[in-house]
Amino acid sequence: MDSDSRAAPEVCAFGVICRRFKPHLLMVLVHTCYTILYFTAEAAFNHGLNPHVMVTYRHFIGGLVMFPFAYVLERKVRPKLTLALFAEIFVLSLFGIGLTLNMYFASLTYTSPTFLASMVNTIASLTFVMAIILRLEHLDIRNPRGLAKILGTLFSLVGVMIMTSCKGPVIRNLSSPLIHIGRNNMHENWTKGSILTVASCITWSIWYIMQAFTMKRYPAPLSITTWMNFIGGAQSAVIAVIMQHKPEAWSFSVNIQLWSTIYAGVVCSGIMIFLLLWCTKQKGPVFVTMFNPLSTIMVAFTAYFVLGEKLYTGSIVGAVIAIIGLYLLLWGKEIDQQVGVKSQEQSNLTSEEQKEPTQIATSP
Question: Global pTM?
Answer without folding.
Answer: 0.73
